[in-house]
Structures are given as structure tokens and as C-alpha cells.
Specification:
Blueprint lengths: L11 E4 L6 H8 L2 H5 L2 E5 L8 H9 L5 E4 L2 H10 L11 H7 L2 H8 L4 E6 L3 E6 L16 H8 L6 E5 L7 E5 L2 E5 L12 E6 L3 E6 L3 H11 L5 H9 L5 H8 L10
Parallel strand pairs: 1-2, 2-3, 5-6, 6-8
Antiparallel strand pairs: 1-9, 4-5, 7-8, 9-10
């Protein structure tokens, strides 16, 4: 889905890394500017979490206004369910995979890896999960220019804005003349609690939606049968992992320590 972009859009809401957290998704969808956006783009890792089927159902009820991209965690659930892998790195992954219906697995399997739209003020915008060429590569706000040159290899010159997720930390930066935007994570934020998302057109506005986290944790603990759900919900919804923690983990994966 990287062909000729459609007509220019005025406002696009970008939701990334929902990770099956229904209360966070509900809070973002209730935002007036999300409700009014012409399109909602999901940049992957939609389902790997405590309420994957419920999250899918809610998003699909939004109709054609929602545009979908698969993330690495969605791919892993599909592969696990289809017997193409024996395990999933994320401990909650097998639980999430088992919660999906066969039809939902087929739906996830058919999702594209990239999408290009024309957005007012931003031109042709390429949406992906991690990088335009790979759903697991890591790029960070402080990744070196050579790393960005690598991940942009093959991206058409007409694309001047790239939106990616994967690392759960919001940022906006320039890299080789392209604007790069990470909306952060709706369901599993690192560094700051709340449901993070982004509004595009004509600029790029990083947003965070506050919601009742103690109530959401109680709800997940009550409604989800995952054995460690209370600890999982407390850790991720309260953003117990700081941005510094996340950068220490992700930093080596962008090749910064092996560069000449």
C-alpha cells in the first residue's frame, strides 16, 4: 500500500502501539480531535496485550476511517497461531494470540506494512511500524545520521515525512531533510503515563490523553485472565519504565556502538 497517494487529507490522527489496552484506546477515541479526524492511522502493535479481541472489535467498528498497518507484535501473534513459531518474546503474547478468533488472525495477517497518504502541510507521509523497510528495526530521537540514511534507503524522494512507532517514546525530529514523527504508545508508554498519540495536518502535534489509570488497572485485572495481569497493568499503564530505561535498552539496537 505504498502506491500513488489519494487526495490530500486535512487532519489525520495517528495511534501506535495500543497493545490490547482497551481503556487507553477508548480514552483516545473519545478525544474530540480524534473523533473529527478524516482518518485514523494505526501504526502497528495493535493486539499484543490483555484485550486484543476487544481492541480489534472497537477499531473495526470505526469503519473505513481507520487505516491499518501491522507491527512486529501483530505478526508474531499470527505466526504463533499458525504454528510458524514456537514462542513469542513478549510473555503476554501467547495469551493474546489465544484470545483472537481465526477470522481476526486472518485479518491481522492481511494488514500492510506501510501506507502513504498526502496530508495538508506535510506532503506525502509514509507510515510504518518501526522503519519503512523492517518492522523490528530501532531508530531513536538521537540515532546518528548514518542510521537514518540506512533506514531511508529505497524511500521515494517525494516522501518528506515518515511516521513510525515501535519504541513507545514520542518525538519529532529532522533527518536528512525529512520530518520523522513517533507518536509514542497508546497502551504501553515509556517515560510518562497516559495514552500517547499524534495529530497530523498542517503540522505534527504530539498529544497525550490522561485517563483514570487506577480504574483501568482494576478493570483489566477484573476482565483479563492473564496470570500476571495485575503486575502487567501496573507496570505499563503507570509507565514504570522511564525514558532513560528504554533508551538504555534500545540504544544498542540502532547500531550506535558498532558504527565506525
Amino acid at each position: 500500500m505504498t502506491g500513488e497517494p489519494a487526495a490530500e487529507l486535512g487532519r489525520v490522527a495517528v495511534l501506535s502501539d495500543i497493545h490490547g489496552v482497551l481503556p487507553a484506546l477508548e480514552a483516545v477515541l473519545a478525544e474530540p480531535e480524534v473523533a473529527a479526524a478524516e482518518r485514523i492511522v494505526l501504526t502497528g502493535d495493535i493486539t499484543a496485550g490483555p484485550q486484543p479481541a476487544e481492541v480489534l472489535d472497537l477499531l473495526r467498528r470505526q469503519g473505513d476511517r481507520v487505516l491499518w498497518i501491522a507491527g512486529n507484535a501483530d505478526r508474531e501473534l499470527v505466526e504463533y497461531r499458525r504454528g510458524e513459531r514456537d514462542d513469542i518474546p513478549d510473555p503476554i503474547g501467547p495469551y493474546a494470540a489465544a484470545r483472537l478468533t481465526d477470522e481476526q488472525v486472518d485479518f491481522l495477517a492481511a494488514l500492510p506494512k506501510t501506507l502513504t497518504l498526502r496530508v495538508r502541510g506535510l506532503g506525502d507521509v509514509l507510515f510504518c511500524h518501526a522503519t519503512p523497510r523492517d518492522d523490528e528495526e530501532v531508530v531513536l530521537v538521537d540515532s546518528r545520521p548514518a542510521r537514518w540514511a540506512e533506514v531511508f534507503d529505497g524511500v521515494t524522494d517525494s516522501v518528506r515525512t515518515v511516521v513510525c512507532g515501535h519504541t513507545h517514546m514520542p518525538y519529532v525530529r529532522l533527518a536528512h531533510g525529512r520530518l520523522v514523527i513517533n507518536p509514542g504508545s497508546v497502551g504501553m508508554p515509556y517515560g510518562r503515563a497516559g495514552a500517547h498519540w499524534c495529530l497530523l495536518g498542517p503540522g505534527a502535534d504530539l498529544r497525550v490523553t490522561a485517563y483514570d489509570i487506577p480504574r483501568a488497572i482494576a478493570r483489566l485485572t477484573s476482565e483479563c485472565a492473564y496470570v500476571d495481569i495485575a503486575d502487567w497493568a501496573d507496570h505499563f499503564l503507570n509507565a514504570r519504565a522511564t525514558d532513560a530505561d528504554a533508551l538504555r535498552v534500545f540504544g544498542p539496537r540502532d547500531g550506535r556502538y558498532t558504527a565506525e
